[in-house]
Specification:
The structure holds two protein chains of two kinds. Chain A contains 17 helices and no strands. By secondary structure, chain A is mainly α. By secondary structure, chain B is an all-alpha fold. Chain B has one domain. The longest helix of chain B has 30 residues. The radius of gyration of chain B is 21 Å and the shape is elongated. The chains are: A mainly alpha, B mainly alpha. At the A-B interface, helix 7 and helix 15 of A face helix 1, helix 2 and helix 3 of B.
Amino acid sequence: MVDTKTAPGQPERLQLLRVLGPAHIWALGVGIVLVGEYMGWNFAVGKGGMIAGLIACWVAGLLYTCVAMIDSEVTSTVAAAGGQYAQAKHIVGPLMAFNVGLFLVMAYTMLEAANAITIGFLLDTVAGMQGHSGLHQQPFIVLCIMFLAWLNYRGVLATLTFNLVITAIAFMAIIALFLSVQFGVSSVPLDFSAVTTDPMPYGWIGILASLHFGLWYYLGIEGTCQAAEEVRSPARSLPYGTMAGIMTLLIAATMTWYVCSGLIPWEYLGQAGTPLFDAARVTGNRGLMVLLFIGTMFSTLASANGCINDASRAWFSMGRDRYLPIWFGAVHPVYRTPYRSIIFLVPIALIFALGAPLDQVVTFSILSGLLGYTFMTFNMVMFRKKWPLDTIKRGYVHPMHPLPTIVLLILCATAYVAVFLGYGTQLIAMVSFYIIASLWFHFRRYRFVRRGDQFTMPWPRPEGY
Amino acid sequence: MDIWTILEYAAWALSALFALLMLSDMIRIDTTYDNELLTSSREGEIEAAAERHTL
């Protein structure tokens, strides 16, 4: 039986299901990001030493706090699937919206692929510890993507409830490790002597370069607003879940730096594959080792799961507006999910997960994210200018405008320099890709877009128009 | 054949199963329902009904 939601007097329509609450929003945002605490952030230590790891943690934390504040205000007002894509469409224009939609899909699909690669790597490590060498990682990578895609296909409530449970366990594992080390469970004491003996081994350029990997601590928190069309009360749930999420991540990131830097020499920490799990191994406590291994697996699964959710919503929204073929804008009549978009993105994730190296996949994800954060700065300025505070109702109003916007822009520029130092070719390749895609959209695709249907929010005419 | 080799085969089998479940359901839905209905979702429609931006 078809489950439709239609206003009286209107034709029968299928819509996404509004079943989520603030906890699901928290689980979506933190779930995507928390894997960055379990791995990846520590390369910042390798780039610039122990102090660089902490500076990157807090500078990137400031960047993402700005992102969370700006996003919370705009998305509590533009509550539509697609998140920043829908924001760009309403506030900037179609070409910007098309690019932002692509940034989102690329960032999340690449991150999903990176998570699947990590699952394969983790299982290979465990197999190796049990004496089985040469494990084939491909079946586990494929299973990870297929299972999570199937879960997403079946419904958003089950998907994000699953994320809530595994993300909470992964977060509690970090707190358990921190408390255990503080209360003397570790056989090795915390040692921060490198802070004074070797504070900046590569100088200020090392500090700058470390910012690239500092983004890992928080990359993806902006994904909360992809669920805007599926939460019961977007004006309340989205800001609440997003701000709670960034606070959670600031705590988790600082704890992670503290425990790992205190237990593991920075020269090793800077190239460790799984720093939190390695820190648990250093403590010599078997219970902590098992807990942190579970935390690593769960955080990776939660991230891939959230990425499938977000990438499919962005793709679906672009299809619905005919920025892409309308075929992608279909909603499942029973599960009420964007089922065609979910299935379409599976082979793309598989291609990157099975055919590309992890650091390249991660860098493309970070670059797409950075381009999206840069968009947020002028999007916010235009939003406040076109619709001042007294013209439309907002679920959240971020303080000290335009200071967060200026800080975000400066930090984005710094992060571009940091990425360029290590991955200049990828940065140029990525920007070239988006330019070519923009030309395609402008000259070939835009003729199919329903221009009159673009603006869907019940807002007054913008100032100056 | 050790446990990890068995798990590899099990992972391939489960992957194929999940792919089959999704694809068969998609084909069933696409052949059962009118495409106009499946693509009838409109942005902002729920939002417009649920919340009026009045001050």
